[in-house]
Amino acid sequence: MKKEYKNEEEFLKDYDSSAFEKLSLTTDILLFSVSDGTKENYRKLNEKHFSILLVKRSDYPFKDKWCLPGGFIKMDETIDEAAIRILASETNLHNIYMEQLYTFGDVNRDPRMRIISTTYMALVDKNTLLETISLKASWFRVTMREDNDEIEITLDNGTETLKFKVKKILISKTTDRYQYQITENDSLAFDHAEVIITGIERLKNKVNYTDIVFHMMPEYFTLGELQQVYEIILGKKLLDPAFRRIIGKKVEKTKKMKTGEGHRPSVLFRYKGGKS
């Protein structure tokens, strides 16, 4: 016969949580940056590089494989607090803009136990970082090659090159939503290849309808530099007049000029909204 309780306090006192299976919760952080690369022509702007930050695992499972900064969430902290703590402990970086990306919960995503990960997408202008990243962390330049519903992603840090392939599967025509199936991957731990492609596609979408890109920009920039960042994220060339119409309401001209780089002085702009 089912026991009747007088109040919630009495119910909780008698409650037996051991009747349920346990699972663990982690958080992983996908940190993006756009930074200056090598200048091949002094009359042109610096080439921009789109990068992500990875750390090399020192323990099993996936020992010596690269993965996203991540870790287990403590019982006495929120998920946001855990993400900030883990990013600092894994990479030595602080005060980085972050927002939740997605929760990954495939049953077999971790060989140790049932683990669900709430992932975060973080953005930073690598050129303005004042802190030195930890020795186990490394920036990898991202290169994407897309052919219909197949995507090949190459990650290169100058010493190692990692590759994985993705198949895009349309799951909703009305909302243009895709599922990403990893078809080849021998370099990245856990399901982090799926996290990376999910984050890249989310960032592409958000660049079109939000001001998120300014978290990857310095305080002052030229319109040409800003356009380069848009182009490298979107993976396509943008027409100058159309880009300037789109961006015109988001930036303001300053009295500062960028000089001394082999081309005509350029007016510097800044973001109108300020960074959160």
- Number of helical elements: 5
The average pLDDT score comes to 88
Query: Uncertain regions: pLDDT < 50 for 5+ in a row?
Result: none
CATH superfamily of the largest domain: Nucleoside Triphosphate Pyrophosphohydrolase
- Sheet with most strands: 10 strands, mixed
Radius of gyration: 22 Å
CATH class of the largest domain: Alpha Beta
State the oligomer.
Answer: single chain
CATH architecture of the largest domain: Alpha-Beta Complex
Instruction: State the share of residues found in helices, binned by percent.
Output: 10-25%
Describe this structure in words.
With 276 residues, the chain is α+β, with helices and mostly antiparallel strands. It has 2 domains: 24-209, Nucleoside Triphosphate Pyrophosphohydrolase, CATH 3.90.79; 212-271, Arc Repressor Mutant, subunit A (Orthogonal Bundle). It is built from 5 helices and 12 strands. Strands 1, 2, 3, 4, 5, 6, 7, 8, 9 and 10 form a 10-stranded mixed beta sheet that branches. A hairpin with a 4-residue loop joins strand 9 (161-172) and strand 10 (177-185). The termini are far apart.
Short key terms for the protein model shown above:
21% helix; two-stranded antiparallel ribbon; Arc Repressor Mutant, subunit A
